Amino acid sequence: MSLAHLMNREMKTISNTTTIQEAARIMGVQKIGSLFVEKDGHLAGILTETDIVRKAAAKGLDLKKETVDSISSKPIISIEIVRSPQDAFDLMGELRVRHLGVTERGKIVGVMSVRDLLVHFKKQSEPRMGID
Description:
The protein is built from 4 helices and 6 strands. The chain has helices at residues 20-30, 49-57, 85-95, 114-124; strands at 13-15, 34-39, 42-48, 78-80, 99-104, 107-113.
């Protein structure tokens, strides 16, 4: 099975000039853990919940004034759509990230989160643990 069946093709984006507070609000409302950051018409980075906590809140940055450009992760770590879920899991573990851009012929076409992989591997595991 390739990542094409597991990834999220709904790529949520924000401008690199968006404030961190606004980005956090968007993530909360949309119940998502990451946003791609656009700069000059192309994807320049990815902002995650972890970035907000560790690079902004923990350091006392002014979330109302600082922009996501200052804390987003760059470059976007990505994996080709034809790779397996195990490959994505291994890459995330090796690089200690929770989100990957998924590429097709070099262009980002979606996002894969560690949560997506957990759901996939849970479906693959046997026997069920009796949790409904």
